[in-house]
């Protein structure tokens, strides 16, 4: 140890390093500024990340050599270590299993059809994220000069003015390109219809003004979206899920979820939404209000589709299913435990509300589902639709098996309401990623599959298959079922996929063409004009309607009825 002289800074050997008090303080301040600017820890006692940053900030003070200062710093290290350990233990599911399960909020059992309206063929999304990216890349490639300066960001599916579209922002392709684009940002976004692959537009101007996307998650320094929010005071809440969305006029924004930890230092829960204008950087913050029925979103603009991050929702769904009987049950008994199936999707229901959809299966079982969870992407209100059936991947394999000679691959399905029955819808792609066919698969019985080169053809094929299967009995929705007795005015046939389809026009309903096969009745080939028939079908609003039941009143008359 060196001897210190009067009126000189206190110095001490730290191995072979010696540092004065003033330089140590300066070093600590510089480290603190570096951590705050680069790492951007949440400055909240419910987040433990700041404790690790503080440990680095205090380290230069140990090198001063003062025994008293060293003891103080070591005591602070001990306090930080105790805080982290205590916070994590107090937040562990071992002690807080009930809190983790309840974080999802009230889960309501409900009828599927009350949330998801009957399938609208014009709004069924046929373009998935990978296909939308491919289409956007081709559109960007039309401008060779621009394609070398920017890249496509993460596509977001969104309802805009009643149309389901993918919006894809243009982002900087690297650090040096960011320097080149520094003052002007990137020029606009690409919008791809989720229902029509031919409908693609490159939006570069709005109201005759250039669209500029300056603030981005992939930008650098103060134009980085997270850092822009952090430097503007968003330091006490976590920030997650940077989603590119446009309002009804086409203005580009980033919607960012603000969250807190609700179970000690864990248990992330969305508490607000920060909306950042992609060009000007203007920030508007909307807090969410906790109500008896869940979170209220009444203050947040209606054009925002998603507030709840998908990772928060899927995690909380698993907590809800796993901790149904406490923590120890997850290790030993595993009684009544549920878990989400692999993958999720976003579907749109009544009033253009969007929902996270995922299947739920029993823990230890990967063959089928026990039901489905539909979680509102804004309020997190969750509905459990109980229905045993096939998992999404089982349905995908079933659809692929239907066209195995073409070696098409199914996309992850979307849950739709087919005449009141939960049904998977998916596209079938070739090896080049192009959509070749469409498929509907019954959730209750994944052997019931309908495929076609158009959505309408696939639906008709599915309904025909459903009507001839025992599953069809369970698919009837009394709200949309119609029973009618009338007279055949015209009848004709057409052969599709080696099956004869009969097309019937009834005298009492000339506006409709009813379609049937001999799966409904073996008397169908004997049908003639003026025959009286009883039919059952689902109201779809289409001119062509597939029958779910058919009976010839006279030909199929029982002997006792004839008497």
In short:
The chain is of the alpha+beta class and 563 residues long. 26% of the residues lie in helices and 33% in strands. It is built from 14 helices and 29 strands.
Structure report:
By secondary structure, the protein is an alpha+beta fold. It has four domains: 21-90, no CATH class; 115-296, no CATH class; 392-475; 481-562, Beta Barrel (OB fold (Dihydrolipoamide Acetyltransferase, E2P)), CATH 2.40.50. 26% of the residues lie in helices and 33% in strands. It contains 14 helices and 29 strands. Strands 1, 15, 16, 17, 18 and 19 form a six-stranded mixed beta sheet that branches. α4 packs across α10 (310-322). The longest helix is centred in the N-terminal third of the chain and has 24 residues, at 67-90. 35% of the residues are buried.
């Amino acid at each position: 140890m060196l001897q210190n002289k009067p009126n000189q800074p206190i110095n001490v050997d730290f191995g072979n390093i010696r540092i004065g008090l003033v330089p140590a303080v300066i070093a600590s301040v510089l480290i603190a500024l570096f951590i705050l600017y680069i790492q951007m820890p949440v400055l909240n006692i419910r987040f433990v990340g700041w404790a690790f940053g503080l440990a680095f900030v205090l380290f230069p003070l140990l090198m001063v050599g003062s025994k008293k200062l060293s003891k103080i710093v070591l005591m602070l290290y001990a306090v930080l270590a105790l805080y982290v350990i205590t916070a994590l233990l107090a937040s562990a599911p071992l002690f807080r299993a009930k809190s983790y399960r309840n974080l999802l909020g009230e889960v309501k059992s409900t009828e599927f059809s009350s949330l998801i309206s009957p399938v609208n063929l014009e709004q069924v999304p046929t373009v998935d994220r990978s296909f939308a990216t491919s289409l956007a890349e081709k559109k960007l490639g039309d401008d060779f000069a621009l394609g070398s300066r920017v890249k496509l960001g993460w596509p977001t599916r969104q309802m805009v003015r009643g149309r389901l579209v993918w919006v894809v922002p243009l982002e900087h392709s690297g650090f040096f390109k960011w320097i080149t684009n520094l003052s002007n940002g990137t020029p606009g976004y690409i919008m791809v219809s989720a229902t029509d692959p031919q409908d693609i537009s490159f939006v570069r101007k709005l109201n005759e003004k250039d669209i500029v996307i300056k603030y981005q998650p992939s930008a650098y320094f103060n134009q980085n979206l997270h850092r822009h929010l952090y430097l503007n005071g968003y330091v006490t809440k976590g920030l997650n899920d940077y989603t590119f969305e446009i309002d009804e006029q086409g203005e580009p924004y980033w919607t960012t979820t603000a969250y807190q930890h609700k179970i000690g230092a864990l248990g992330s829960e969305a508490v607000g939404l920060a909306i950042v204008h992609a060009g000007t950087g203007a920030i508007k913050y909307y807090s969410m209000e906790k109500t008896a029925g869940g979170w209220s979103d009444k203050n947040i603009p209606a054009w925002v589709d998603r507030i709840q991050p998908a990772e928060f929702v899927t995690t909380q769904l698993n907590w809800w299913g796993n901790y149904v009987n406490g923590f120890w049950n997850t290790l030993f008994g595993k009684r009544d435990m549920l878990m989400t199936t692999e993958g999720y999707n976003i579907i749109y229901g009544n009033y253009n509300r969007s929902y996270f959809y995922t299947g739920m299966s029993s823990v230890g079982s990967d063959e089928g589902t026990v039901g489905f969870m539909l979680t509102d992407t804004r309020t997190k209100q969750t509905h459990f639709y109980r229905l045993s059936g096939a998992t999404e991947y089982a349905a995908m394999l079933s659809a692929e098996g239907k066209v195995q000679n073409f070696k098409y691959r199914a996309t992850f399905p979307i849950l739709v309401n087919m005449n009141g029955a939960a049904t998977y819808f998916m596209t079938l792609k070739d090896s080049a990623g192009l959509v070749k066919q469409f498929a509907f698969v019954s959730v209750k019985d994944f052997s019931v599959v309908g495929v076609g080169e158009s959505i309408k053809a696939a639906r008709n094929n599915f309904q025909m298959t459903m009507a001839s299967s025992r599953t069809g009995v369970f698919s009837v929705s009394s709200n949309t079922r119609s029973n009618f007795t009338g007279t055949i005015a015209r009848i004709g046939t057409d052969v599709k996929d080696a099956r004869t389809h009969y097309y019937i026009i009834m005298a009492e309903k000339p506006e409709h063409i009813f379609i049937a096969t001999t799966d409904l009745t073996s008397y169908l080939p004997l049908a003639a004009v003026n025959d009286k028939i009883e039919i059952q079908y689902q109201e779809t609003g289409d001119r062509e309607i597939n029958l779910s039941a058919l009976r010839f009143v006279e030909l199929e008359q029982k002997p006792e009825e004839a008497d």
